[in-house]
Design a protein that fits this description.
8-stranded mixed β-sheet, two-stranded antiparallel ribbon, globular
Length: 448
């Protein structure tokens, strides 16, 4: 098989992460025509020596590229996009954080799609929260793609980009001037991708949706941008999006806020409290960002100002009231962000009930992903309705587990009355029973 994709990992002092990821992917990436490049700016030779050892042991789809540590992540990324260090001609360049990888099935899918000459292949690993969040098409133009997925292009590993666009269509001197690309830009990828796609006569982006792919991450490291949260997402991010060509103007505000509302950015009360405790969210920072807060987040300003006053409990109490109001108005997306982004709600309702509610939203997401007719949110208007469903199902399942007689009519009646899906049953069995196979077997015997 011709190796037509260069997967380019950017790493810095993470030899243990590189080892873990390569041990998982090296062979099946090779089988699916994907070469792996390690762009290493480490301050020691641990990563280099490990890569050289693997190459010497016959891993012929692996390459090591040394880069200057002074470049930073985005400086390295920019060089990758320009084709620096590549040993062959490829159809696609695929940048990635060193902690991310795809499963064997996803690698196979990527290779199958790579032969059609798309301008980019996009890996959408994000599971939507609202049932109508998006309907997938196979091919998107640049405007549609920006509208639906623009915020997610900030994740390097999502974009598999045509080398023709990167190495032939783009005038890098002009791009660096127009979009201020460089070592400190932080958004070289999104500016390059959408700037490059705008040059195409009929751009075609193949979107592989979350139902068809699986992107994994190592647990050995995480994001290194926390200290820069407000500079990165409050200042540089909106500025970068606003620099894009005018063809994207209609959706720029949407894309800016979708990124801001991520739990690790400005979409979580827990995160804002932690940023305040770590002296990252300060009064001076808030003064600089307050007037444009609505551009970045749907979390009310009053929450932030209570946090700045160290009135954490008041902010959490108001947030929980808002959570119930969102359930009442069927705004499950807003409710999801509040409950998953405010773990301090445990202080109000207790650990057990909090995690039951989080589990209910796990069920909801699973039902959406599988396009189920049955929905856990059926006739739910407050958190007590969710807890009632969960606890009643738990007690029913435990009666089965403990051998207490349960007749089929009782089970069928409960399932129908409360619109219980198989996903709901599965989650509660896993979380609340010990003899899981026994319980699953009894449910199967009822043929529900």
């Amino acid at each position: 098989m011709r190796h037509n994709i260069a997967c380019c990992y950017l790493t810095h002092n993470h030899p243990e992460v590189v080892k873990e990821i390569l041990n998982i992917i090296i062979d099946y990436y090779n089988e699916n025509g994907i070469d792996i490049y390690i762009y290493d700016s480490s301050t020691n030779d641990d990563t280099k020596l490990y890569i050289e050892n693997m190459i010497n042991n016959g891993k012929n789809n692996l390459y090591y590229v040394s880069v200057n540590a002074d470049l930073g992540g985005d400086g390295k990324l920019l060089r990758i996009l320009k084709g620096y260090g590549l040993k062959k001609k490829y159809d696609y360049i695929w940048p990635s954080k060193d902690r991310s990888y795809v499963t064997m099935e996803t690698a196979k899918k990527i290779q199958q799609e790579s032969v059609y000459g798309y301008d980019s292949i996009f890996l959408d690993w994000w599971i939507p929260i609202a049932s109508d969040k998006r309907e997938y098409k196979k091919i998107y133009d640049n405007i549609e793609f920006f509208k639906e997925f623009g915020w997610l292009v900030t994740s390097w590993e999502t974009m598999i980009i045509s080398t023709k666009m990167l190495l032939e269509d783009i005038d890098w001197n002009l791009f660096e001037k127009n979009y201020e690309l460089g070592n400190e830009n932080n958004f070289n990828q999104i500016l390059t991708v959408f700037g490059g796609l705008e040059l195409k006569k009929e751009p075609k982006i193949r979107v592989l949706g979350y139902r068809d792919i699986s992107v994994k991450n190592s647990d050995l490291c995480g994001s290194a941008w926390t200290n820069m949260t407000f500079e990165l997402w409050g200042e540089k991010w909106p500025r970068a999006i606003k620099m894009l060509p005018t063809c994207y103007d209609l959706y720029k505000e949407k894309v800016i806020k979708e990124q801001g509302m991520q739990i690790g950015v400005f979409g979580s009360i827990d995160n804002l409290i932690q940023l305040h405790r770590n002296n990252i969210l300060t009064n001076d920072v808030w003064t600089g960002i307050r007037d444009k807060w609505e551009e970045l987040s749907d979390i009310p300003k009053r929450y932030v100002e209570l946090i700045l006053e160290k009135k954490y409990e008041t902010a959490i109490l108001i947030a929980f009231d808002d959570f119930n109001r969102m359930l009442q108005y069927d705004n499950y997306e807003a409710a999801y962000y509040i409950i998953t982004g405010t773990q301090y709600i445990i202080n109000l309702i207790g650990n057990t009930y909090y995690w039951m509610l989080v589990s209910c939203f796990e069920v909801y997401l699973s039902e959406i992903r599988k396009q189920k007719h049955e929905r856990i949110m059926f006739e739910v208007k407050n958190y007590k309705d969710l807890l009632y469903k969960y606890q009643e199902l738990k007690f029913l399942l435990r009666r089965m587990e403990y051998g207490i007689k349960v007749n089929r009519d009782e089970v069928v009646s409960f399932i129908k009355e409360y619109n219980i899906s198989s996903e709901f049953v599965e989650v509660v069995v896993i979380k609340e029973t010990i003899e899981r196979n026994k319980v699953f077997g009894l449910f199967e015997s009822f043929r529900i």
